[in-house]
Amino acid sequence: MIRMRESVGSTRDREAVNSIRQSDAIAVERTLAGERDAFRVLVERHSRQLFRLAYRMTGNENDAEEVVQEAFLRAYRNLAQFGARANFGTWTYRIAANYAIDRMRQKRGEDARRILPGGASEETEQDAMNLVADERPSPDRLAVNAELRKKMKEALATLTWSERTAFVMRHWEGCAIEEIAKVLKSTSGAAKNTVFRSVQKLRRALEPYVGTRGALQTKAAGAAPESPAGTEP
Amino acid sequence: MNHLGEMELIAYRDGETARREAIAGHLAECPECRAELERIDAVLSALNAMPVPERGEDYGRRVWQQIAPRLPEKAGHWWQQWFEPRRWVALGSVAALVIATFIAGRRTSHDGRGFPPASAAQVRERVLVVAVGEHLGRSEMVLMELSNAEPGGSAQKRIDISAEQKRAEELLDENRLYRETAQRQGDAGLASVLDELERVLLDVAHSPQEITPAQLETIQQRMEARGILFKIRVVGRELQEKQNKSKAVPEETGSKTRERNKA
């Protein structure tokens, strides 16, 4: 089961989660009984959460939208398999993660073939890295952020899809190791190692560009640190 | 004092260690390990600062509007999707492809007229060339219609694209099959164009049945940005040339044989 860090707190939170699960179960039953509109409740309730996961996995809004839609279509077609499982959110989450992995694998192959003039890839403008917020857009800060964005993009590109999935699910979505293992179709131990490897790779690549409290290094763009280690292709 | 390993520190930060108290005790006494943990934390915090584009409260409703027309009548079993009419169209295409391959294979392998026997791979390729050529032609028609569509004056607030949408949905299933086949046969160029076509068809299929002029313009701009019509035409022409070539070879061989027989 997916464990969201923010949802394991108070008793009130737990009650809210249980209430949503119960109403999800009712909506699933009604959908299976032929009430197609009951599925609408589930779509409206879980779309934003799925979009967040999909966007972080794909780094692209269009792909994320496609993943969300495809996840719900697959969930609807296979709803009988869901049956009495307790958590519809978890189930669709897993469907979306699996589809996102397939989509990214396919896309990486395409991107390798399709390089635009000037070396920029087609998705540059919509890439997640370009959306890193600038708290104080001074020229120095903008230069440093641009450098960091570039390095983050390079660092994430060095991860395999299973590493990226593990990292997104663990560190951005707060999923339990067991849930990551199910998506990666591996054991908990292997999933834990994958999470570790992803953090290790990102750390090697980004540490020289990041301050000690998560702030950006306030070096001018021209004084970027030396090449980080661990940027293997 | 033995320092903590990187894996232990990452596991500690994630709350994934059974030795939590022992590690906390070590960190309290060891400034080097504390500094190491801070460095790990700094990288992860920087990554956490990456925002996700906001989706408004009505996002779920929009997703529903996009998927609702594509849902089968009843939810449930995966196999039910194979009984949808549009699946039968795709299945029909595949069946035709298989039968054509079989017949072509028999003709070429048992031909008593002295034609050089074509390998199964060649036959498959020829059949694929014909089928994909036709598929691209049909796709081009749909995209051309959308590309040339114009709102009927400023008074028209909505444009009905339900007919194009239905055709795009039917083409999608075929497109997937041809793309997978091209990938399996190692034709990366064709697979890539078919993949791009699939995205455009998906865009159309996922749009509402009635769209605003602005939405139409967005679809047209996306098509233009991808240069999909141009790519389809180029690939279509290449396939046509291939088809002509494969037709010409047996004829040429046949006439040579006839000449040889005359002599």
List keywords for this structure.
heterodimer, A: 233 residues, mainly alpha, elongated, disordered N terminus, B: 263 residues, two-stranded antiparallel ribbon, 2 strands
Q: Strand count, sense and closure of the main sheet of chain A?
A: none
The succession of helices and strands of chain B, N to C, reads HHHHHHEHHEHH
Radius of gyration of chain A: 20 Å
The average pLDDT score of chain A comes to 72
Q: How many helices of chain B?
A: 10
Extended strand count of chain B = 2
Q: Uncertain spans of chain A, ≥5 residues at pLDDT below 50?
A: 1-9, 115-137, 213-233
Rg of chain B, rounded, reads 29 Å
Categorize the overall geometry of chain A: elongated
Portion of residues in beta strands of chain A equals under 5%
With strands numbered from the N-terminus, the spatial order across the biggest sheet of chain B is 1-2
Strand content of chain B: under 5%
Q: Helix amount of chain A, in percent? A: 55-70%
What does the average pLDDT of chain B come to?
76
Number of strands of chain A: 0
* Shape verdict of chain B: elongated
**Series of secondary-structure elements of chain A, N-terminal to C-terminal:** HHHHHHHHH
Question: What is the straight-line distance between the termini of chain B?
Answer: 98 Å
What does this structure look like?
The complex is a heterodimer of chains A (233) and B (263). In chain A, helix 5 (88-113) packs across helix 8 (177-184), helix 6 (139-157) runs antiparallel to helix 9 (188-206) and helix 7 packs across helix 9 (188-206). The longest helix of chain A has 26 residues, at 88-113. Chain A contains 9 helices and no strands. In chain A, 64% of the residues lie in helices and 0% in strands. Chain A has 233 residues and is an all-alpha fold. In chain B, helix 1 (6-14) packs across helix 3. Chain B is 73% helix and 2% strand. Mean pLDDT of chain B is 76; it is low at 110-115. A two-stranded antiparallel ribbon of chain B has the order 1-2. By secondary structure, chain B is mainly α. Classes of the chains: A mainly alpha (233), B mainly alpha (263). Chains A and B meet through helix 2, helix 3, helix 4, helix 5 and helix 7 of A and helix 1, helix 3, helix 4 and helix 8 of B.
